[in-house]
Amino acid sequence: MTPAPPPAETPQPAGTPPQAEAQPAPPAETPQSAQTPSPAETQPAPPAESAPPAETPPPVPVPVPGVDPDEPPAVPSGKFGTPGRPLRRSSFLIGFTGALGVLLAYTLYLGIRNAGGILVLVVIALFLAVGLNPAVVRLGRWGVPHGLAVAAVALTVVLLLCGGVVALVPPIVTQSGQFIDQIPSLLDELRRNPTVNDLVERYDVVERVQGAANAETVGRALGGVLGGAQLIFGTVFRTLTVLVLTIYFLAYFDKLRSLGYSLVPRSRRQRVQLIGDEILAKVGSYMVGALSIAVLAGATTFVFALIVDLPYPFALAVVVAVTDLIPQIGATLGAVIVSLVGFAADLPTGIACAVFFLIYQQVENYLIYPKVMRRSVEVNEVAALLAALLGVALLGVVGALIAIPTVAALQLILREVVLPRQERR
Questions:
Q1: Which of 374, 383, 380 is nearest to 282 (CA)?
Q2: How high is the mean pLDDT of the chain?
Q3: CA quadruple 159, 163, 169, 174: dihedral sign
Q4: How many C-beta atoms surround the C-beta of residue 308 within 10 A?
Q5: Quick one: which of 110, 68, 64, 74 has its CA closest to 93?
Q6: Residue 161 vs residues 93, 112, 243, 417: alpha-carbon distances, Å
Q7: How far is it, in rounded angstroms, from Cα 14 to Cα 11?
Q8: What number of other Cβ atoms are within 10 A of residue 351's Cβ?
Q9: How far apart are the C-alpha atoms of 395 and 16, rounded to whole Å?
């Protein structure tokens, strides 16, 4: 008999270790303890690493005609339903919107131009409130209630204003009446002068004067009288408006300041508040210092006018005090007015006035002004002069009064904001 061939070996894949020799089969039944697998054997085998899924491309949005894809979707408002899609940005809509912007800007310009007088009064009241607020704060530190402190400061301002009016109005009325009474005597003196008579006959002055004295001239004179009355009542109205606004700003100064700071973004509010408080402190210090210097100049002038026996010394003192508030040129203007009054009295009095003001201005410029203004503002002389000239050109005397504190505020902003930003670039 031919022996049976050995069984063919099953081929194994590459990298697979050869199988061990066949072991005898285990018994059919195994005790329960032997059947319990070890914890290591019970752990499931780690899953085989699978290939990452292929990335799905994002869906391409389908453009909808008449809808801007950059606009956010409509969000329902609840009470009034869901708003519709925004209008399409067409060239017509852009041009129409630009035209509305130009029209609005022009309307705003017309409103500011027509309300220029009221805005000037508001600016004056703001500066007065900023200048008087340190007095209110000082009274508050002494234990005076805020409302009573504001009332005391406002009453002091009203008394000073009434004193100035009482000092200026009677001399003006008296001098005008005296001049009108002296007109006939002046005309008689002119007629006695042969040179004046020659000129009158040569140029027919009498006939021209008689021809000018007609209804048209009378109407113009009446218009001038009405214009003068309108000027007086207008001045009274503006003065009362500034006074009322100043009291209002003083009463609500802290609230208005807090409201202004709250309009600034929160990230910049602290820095803006520090710079704003510094500007308000400088403006207030300047106003207090300027008022102190003006009162001192008026008091000195009053004493000098009593010594040299000038007419209406209190009125001249008020004029000097008011003009001394104008920076750079105010003191000289007051000195010229008082000197002219002195020369009208007699020559020695006029010379004494000129010498007195020449000496006093030197003392004020080099001794009084630096000591009073040392803690308030430090402005270059050239910048102060240019600011005063520009203020007079823009707002008249009011512009000259607010020129120095405005320059001080701009100087602080330039030093603390603009220049550091330029250095960081």
A1: 374
A2: 74
A3: positive
A4: 16
A5: 68
A6: 57, 29, 10, 40
A7: 9
A8: 13
A9: 103
Q: How many residues appear in the chain?
A: 425
For 82, the token pair is: 């869901």
Closest by Cα among 421, 424, 425, 401 to 413: 421
Residue among 127, 36, 97 nearest 395 (CA): 127
Task: Show the DSSP H helices in 82-145 as ranges.
Answer: 91-114, 116-141
Per residue in 325-341, pLDDT (tens digit) is 877 677 888 888 888 88
Contacts (Cβ under 8 Å, ≥6 apart) of 123: 395, 398, 402
The amino acid occupying position 17 is P
Contact 357, 339 (CB under 8 A): yes
For residue 365, give the DSSP letter. I
pLDDT given at position 32: 46
CB 321 within 8 Å of CB 290: no
Q: Burial, 139: exposed, middle or buried (Cβ in 10 Å; 0-12, 13-18, 19+)?
A: middle
* Residue the block writes with tokens 């009073």: 372
With CA atoms as reference, report the closest residue to 71 among 79, 80, 63, 59.
63
Q: Cβ(403)–Cβ(384) under 8 Å?
A: yes
Q: Which two tokens stand for residue 160?
A: 């000073």
Tokens of 73: 């979707």
8 A C-beta contact, residue 283 and residue 408: yes
The per-residue pLDDT for 62 is: 58
* 251 closest CA partner among 160, 151, 156: 151
Note the pLDDT tens digit of each residue in 171-203: 777 766 666 666 667 666 666 667 766 766 666
Tell me how far apart the terminal alpha carbons of the chain are, to the nearest angstrom. 108
Distance CA 375, CA 345 (A): 42
